[in-house]
């Protein structure tokens, strides 16, 4: 029952929405939820069938007793032998009949309530996707030229301020681009637009010259791998936690092991009680020793999910390394840059030792691009990047 509610939480909560859309794991979680729901309902039906049999028997018995009492009272009253006790018995019999009828009414009311809930549920499933979908979607081809943001602006509604304003950016295929900026500059929002969690309020995003709104969101996301700063820690096995990065290969243990090796998670998983079959959960022990991981270990597991899509056209790291120290983060990004050589990739990080690994760096300020170039070029420019770099350098030197 607790597992059923957990998968229901994953499917209906906001926290998991990004990864479910990106990795297309909704079907997998829904299947787990339905299987658990069927199991729970089967157990409930058995219990309810048992209870119903007794309810019918007791209801029949109650009605029989009430009927007999009613006949006896009439007969005795007809013969003039009705006493106070007889009257009491009559009242009790009538009360029993009323109780049985009331129970039936409660059951009918519950059935009606369930039918209304089912109607609301089916109506919810029938709601259209909030993203406008083209009637004739185009196939998503392998990225060969690059991604372009052309005059892209975005805000969540007319009542909200602009998060991005007139952003023009080209990311050549095969290049590693780093995004730099203070919190609230619009970096994560830009990533959400690339993944088509939202559509631009103004402007367009082009994939090899094709507006991404001409693709289905699901097919577009299959060409992209990403890990977010608020990545999820699934209460599932180590294998599932990694395999969810590419749901089609969730049972491909060789691919999962390779992804774990690339992220540095393989060794720690091998040391777990059941290896890749260890439940990384304190919620569902299932008769086994509960196992949880440290923040840094979870980070490696989450990064392995990204490496499940190492062959994707676009790979994104959106500041997922808060649980790592500077040295561990540097090693992770260095490993990432090496592994994705030749792939189009996007790095978001506050640490400049990481950012300088990119082929090109873009600085966002207040939702607008103010600088772009290599690490050395931006330092010579003496703008916002040089200022932020100097502040961080002083911090480490101090």
TrEMBL record:
Residues covered by the ABC transmembrane type-1 domain: 1-113
GO terms for MF: ABC-type oligopeptide transporter activity; ATP binding; ATP hydrolysis activity
Location (main, coarse): membrane
Keywords: ATP-binding, Cell membrane, Membrane, Nucleotide-binding, Transmembrane, Transmembrane helix, Transport
Family matches, as PROSITE patterns: ABC_TM1F, ABC_TRANSPORTER_2
InterPro entries: AAA+_ATPase (IPR003593), ABC1_TM_dom (IPR011527), ABC1_TM_sf (IPR036640), ABC_transporter-like_ATP-bd (IPR003439), P-loop_NTPase (IPR027417), Type_1_exporter (IPR039421)
Classification via Pfam families: ABC_tran
Subcellular location: Cell membrane
SMART domains documented for this protein: AAA
Sequence intervals crossing the membrane: 54-75
Domain ABC transporter stretches: 147-391
Name of protein: Efflux ABC transporter, permease/ATP-binding protein
Organism: hydrothermal vent metagenome
């Amino acid at each position: 029952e607790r597992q059923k509610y957990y998968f229901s939480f994953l499917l209906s909560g906001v926290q998991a929405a990004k990864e479910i859309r990106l990795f297309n794991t909704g079907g997998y979680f829904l299947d787990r939820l339905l299987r658990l729901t069927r199991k729970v309902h089967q157990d409930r039906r058995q219990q309810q069938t048992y209870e119903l049999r007794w309810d019918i028997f007791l209801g029949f018995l109650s009605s029989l007793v009430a009927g007999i009492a009613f006949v006896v009272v009439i007969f005795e009253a007809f013969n003039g032998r009705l006493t106070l006790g007889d009257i009491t018995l009559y009242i009790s019999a009538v009360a029993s009949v009323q109780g049985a009828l009331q129970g039936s009414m409660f059951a009918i009311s519950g059935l009606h309530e369930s039918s209304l809930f089912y109607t609301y549920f089916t109506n919810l499933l029938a709601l259209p996707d909030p993203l406008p979908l083209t009637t004739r979607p185009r196939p998503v081809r392998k990225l060969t030229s690059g991604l372009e943001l052309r005059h892209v602006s975005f805000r969540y509604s007319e009542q909200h301020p602009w998060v991005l304003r007139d952003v023009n950016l080209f990311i050549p295929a095969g290049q590693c681009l780093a995004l730099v900026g203070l919190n609230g500059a619009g970096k994560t929002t830009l990533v959400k637009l690339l993944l088509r969690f939202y559509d631009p309020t103004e402007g367009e995003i082009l994939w090899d010259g094709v507006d991404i709104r001409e693709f289905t969101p699901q097919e577009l996301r299959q060409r992209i791998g990403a890990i977010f700063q608020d990545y999820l820690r699934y209460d599932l096995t180590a294998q599932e936690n990694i395999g969810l990065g590419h749901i089609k290969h969730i049972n491909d243990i060789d691919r999962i092991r390779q992804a774990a090796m690339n992220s540095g998670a393989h060794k720690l998983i091998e040391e777990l009680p059941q290896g890749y079959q260890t439940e990384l959960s304190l919620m569902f022990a299932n008769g086994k020793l509960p196992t949880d991981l440290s923040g840094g270990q979870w980070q490696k597991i989450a990064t392995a999910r990204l490496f499940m899509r190492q062959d994707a056209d676009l790979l994104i790291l959106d500041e997922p390394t808060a649980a790592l120290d500077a040295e561990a983060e540097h090693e992770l990004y260095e490993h990432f840059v090496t592994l994705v050589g030749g792939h189009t990739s996007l790095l978001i990080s506050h640490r400049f030792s990481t950012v300088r690994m990119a082929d090109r760096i873009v600085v966002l300020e207040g939702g607008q691009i103010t600088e772009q170039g290599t690490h050395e070029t931006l330092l010579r420019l003496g703008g916002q990047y040089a200022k932020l770099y100097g502040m961080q350098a002083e911090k480490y030197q101090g």
